[in-house]
Amino acid sequence: MAIASVIAIIFALLSVIEARFIRKDGTPFKTHIKNTVLVFVSAMAGMFIMQSIGDSSVAAPQPVGAFTGAPGF
Questions:
Q1: pLDDT, tens digit (0-9, with 9 covering 90-100), for 6-30
Q2: Quick check: 43 and 9 in contact, CB under 8 A?
Q3: What's the CA gap between 30 and 39, in Å, rounded?
Q4: Where are the domains of the chain?
Q5: Is 0.70 surpassed by the pTM of this model?
Q6: Nearest-5° angle of CA 59, CA 5, CA 14?
Q7: How many Å apart are CA 27 and CA 19, to the nearest integer?
Q8: Whole-angstrom distance, CA of residue 1 vs CA of residue 41
Q9: How many CA within 13 A on the CB side of residue 44?
Q10: N or C terminus of the chain with fewer C-beta within 10 Å?
């Protein structure tokens, strides 16, 4: 949750700076808050999905348990 919060705070700061100093428009603060909450929820969802998938998709392959020796009969 801390990572998602940091991502949302950085997004909010950059969004306000862009609106006030670069675009110089009067975007309502409510819009910035709505977008920041959306970014926070998206970051949380992304982290949840990555945690659910886990590292099994990138783990080293397990050796196959096939018998490769001479038959014992």
A1: 999 999 999 999 998 988 888 888 9
A2: no
A3: 14
A4: 2-52
A5: no
A6: 110
A7: 7
A8: 10
A9: 10
A10: C
